[in-house]
Amino acid sequence: MPDPNALPIYQRTAERLIREIAAGRLLDGERLPPERDMAVSLGISVGTLRKSLADLQSRGLLERRQGSGNYIRHQPEASGVYAFFRLELAKGGGGLPTAEVLSVARLEKPRPAPGFGPSPEAHRIRRLRAVGGVPAALEEIWLDGARAERIAPRDLSESLYLFYRDRLGLVISRVEDRLGTAPVPDWTEAPFGPTAGQTVGYVERTGWDQEGRAVEFSRTWFDPDRVRYVARMR
Amino acid sequence: MPDPNALPIYQRTAERLIREIAAGRLLDGERLPPERDMAVSLGISVGTLRKSLADLQSRGLLERRQGSGNYIRHQPEASGVYAFFRLELAKGGGGLPTAEVLSVARLEKPRPAPGFGPSPEAHRIRRLRAVGGVPAALEEIWLDGARAERIAPRDLSESLYLFYRDRLGLVISRVEDRLGTAPVPDWTEAPFGPTAGQTVGYVERTGWDQEGRAVEFSRTWFDPDRVRYVARMR
DNA sequence: AGGAATTTGTGCGTATGTATC
DNA sequence: AGATACATACGCACAAATTCC
């Protein structure tokens, strides 16, 4: 008798494989066993396994080659929509973008936010973003509570979207950014160039997953004298 | 015997449905017949049809509700590059965006602009943009002089990008927007809510044609109290 | 309120096609 | 050419969600 609370087999299988990849037991470039063999060893049908594999493929974690095999793709490279939105220095030149996690907390969702995700709670991640070593923006990200049990600051040491993909199996496939100006918030965590209350550039973002569900909401305050917000569309 | 050059049935079916939507034969919100019925009328199996429908869903054209039905999701303004960048009212609600041409002139290119096009001259088009009847932004577009001999204001009565496409054979296929804040310029042409010199939202855009040549440069000042600049990425 | 009917979601099995080795 | 492996397509049974009466 199946557990009524359990996720579908194909989802459990996909998440299991994602965990294997995140844990390093499946390495980049590695070839999986043939689908028939995998299905047998997992105790599921080939069709169900194929649905799991298609899921991994759509998340960019697997490359499927007809006649050849299924290959793990675990590149820590930028993929997906975030490559198209970035902060860069206002006065020419590059400058490496970095992000320092200031705090992580699980809280009730903020009220002025648009609806996202099923949970009444969300993880609030506050970051101080810098470009070329210069603090340039404050960022507050709200991730729906149903997506992760707990998040520790060191989970996010690499990159936020890698954490999403590798640890949560979450790929943000569509975002909408709303831009304007807003006063700098008064955070206890952050030293930031402009004084609290001063009007700066402001971006509000909603992020959706592949199934079209809103899962993320974020706000960024940036110093327009130091940094520009860039959106690129192909 | 199946044509070896033909696409798979599920792909052909998906494209057929997409064409139906694009042609307006399937309207937004419309409910499709039950999958079993559709499959019969298309002469394919339910499984194959379901794969086509999943394709449409992943493209955001279809919403599938278990126990209810499959519903067309078609936002006609969501096509083309410029659909991804728009102004909308800050306080919810739609509101028809309009643009009034204030002046058109052929001038030397502005100096602080990034390079675009081969000519030393460019057409400068100034527009007053409104949303829902309320003036919300000033816009200045520079189009490389080599792209057109002369431009009359009434050429632009319809839409700037229709003029580009239909009269100049120019399709903007990539844009990059840089956002920040800037003081309102002191134009003689324009009545605009905020006083000249006041700091407002500011967007600087470079536009490229299909061959990757930069051809257009524009600047927009918008009142962040009235209007938000929205960038959407798929 | 509640049960029946409808509709999509999940899972399995099988046969055949096509690309790769 | 043959074997291997993924892709496509079909059909069926049951589960889960929604809708209708």
Would you give an account of this structure?
Chain A has 234 residues and is of the alpha+beta class. Chain A folds into 2 domains: 9-72, Winged helix-like DNA-binding domain superfamily/Winged helix DNA-binding domain (Arc Repressor Mutant, subunit A), CATH 1.10.10; 87-229, Chorismate lyase (3-Layer(aba) Sandwich), CATH 3.40.1410. Chain A has 4 helices and 10 strands. In chain A, the strands form 3 sheets. Chain A has a 6-stranded antiparallel β-sheet, with no helix packed on it. A two-stranded antiparallel sheet of chain A has the order 1-2. In chain A, helix 1 (9-22) crosses helix 3 and helix 2 (35-42) packs across helix 3. The radius of gyration of chain A is 20 Å and the shape is elongated. Chain A starts with 8 loop residues before the first helix and ends with a strand. In chain A, 29% of the residues are buried. The mean pLDDT of chain A is 85. The A-B interface holds A 58, 81, 84-85, 90, 173-182, 199-203, 210-212, 224, 227-234 and B 57-58, 60, 63, 81, 84-85, 90, 173-182, 199-203, 224, 227-234. Strand 10 (227-233) of chain A pairs antiparallel with strand 7 (174-183) of chain B. Chain B binds a DNA duplex (21 and 21 nucleotides) through helix 3.
